[in-house]
Structure formats: structure tokens, C-alpha cells
Amino acid sequence: MLLHIPEVLSTDQVAESRQLLEQAVWVDGRVTAGHQSAKTKDNTQLSEGDPTAKQLGDFILAALERSPLFMAAALPLKVFPPLFNRYQGGQSFGNHVDNAIRQVTGTPHRVRTDLSATLFFSNPDEYEGGELVIEDTYGVHQIKLPAGHMILYPASSLHHVRPITSGARVASFFWIQSMVRDDGERTLLFDLDMSIQKLSGEVPDHPSITELTSLYHNLLRRWADV
């Protein structure tokens, strides 16, 4: 499932975050790359232990908890602390698949990367190039969203970031371990949830709402791994 989640952060929240990011210390992005992806990765990042990264990461996690669309789609069990990257001056990231397991630095905790997320801090008119290109069974998708918006997609997808030809692209990226490991099962639950919500809004007293809600929770009970 490839899902655009709008307005995770408001315009004011984006502006405040960007002020902090502009004052932060950026390092070579290959510090968090696996062996293969390090060969094609060319960008800068905030160090995982950077105070700004920790502050903004907590801010993003709090915003995600308030997003019904994210919670319904991801069914999150664990979320890797958000990281931050910047592309400029021809930088890019070649085709790769994200590591299946991510160790949270300085802790014994591991996160299985069922879903990948990119939250944009730069608006599309601030840079040229830099599209996030994701390949799935339905084709090739070029993603370039407004600041504060997020794209959520299976971490198993082959993807890359096209070279920046002008300006700078700043974003946060992170991974989610879902309660439901299988993307197909997770997508069915999401579609069912959205249908229940639509029916509840249009016909609040429809008797099928209870039946469909029971079906949703019984499927979640069958598929969830918590």
C-alpha cells in the first residue's frame, strides 16, 4: 500500500522545525546506510544522537499519534526514531531496498521495517529533481509532496531519490514495525476500516456497522503479532 498522509505537520509547525534544522550540524548520510546502499547514497543527515534530531523526532512521533489515517494504515507496534536528511547540489540516492531490521542506536531495541515513511520539510517549488521514486506491482511512482505531508509505503519496495538539480530537499525518514506484518493483510484491514468509517458517517444507525466492526477486529485478532 502506497499512501499519502496530508498535513501531518501544520505550516507553522513546519516553519518552526525548519528553523531548528537550519541551525543543526549535518554529517555524511552514509553513516546510517547498509553495505550495499552506502555505495549509491549521497546526501547529508543529522546524527542519530543530535539533540535537534531527538527533539524533532519526538515532535513527529507525537503528531503521528494524533493522525487517525496513519494509525489506521500503519497499525504501528514500534516506530524507529525519525531521522533527517538533506539533498542538494546534485546529490541523490540510487535504487535500494531498506534494511529489514534496524537497531536503535545505543539501545538493545530492534525494529522490523514493515513500512517506510518520508515526511517532507521542503515544498516542491523550493527544489528541482529530488523526487522519491518508488516501484511496486502497480508501476513506478514519483513522489514530491508539500511540506508537512508524508508518504507511507512498504519497506520492501525498491526505491531511489533522483538527483537534485537546484535548491535543497529536506525531509524526515523512518520505519514502522506494524502489528500486522503482511502488507496485503494490512491493506485489507485499512480498506475495511475506511469503509466502516464512511458508512458510519453516511448512515450512522446502519445495522451492518456493528457486523463489519466485529469482522475488522476478528481479522485483526487473527493477523496481529504483538
Radius of gyration: 18 Å
Q: What percent of the residues sit in helical stretches (DSSP H or I)?
A: 25-40%
Task: Summarize the helix and strand pattern as letters.
Answer: EHEEEHHEEEEEEEEEEEEHH
Outline, from the CA principal axes? globular
Secondary-structure content class = alpha+beta
Oligomer: single chain
Number of helical regions: 5
User: What characterizes the major β-sheet?
Assistant: 9 strands, antiparallel
Whole-number mean pLDDT: 95
Q: Indicate the proportion of strand residues.
A: 25-35%
- Unreliable stretches: none
Number of strands: 16
Kindly, what is the distance between the CA atoms of the first and last residues, rounded to a whole number of angstroms? Answer: 21 Å
Question: Can you tell me about this structure?
Answer:
The protein is an alpha+beta fold and about 230 residues long. About 30% of the residues lie in helices and about 35% in strands. Helix 4 (about 185-200) runs antiparallel to helix 5.
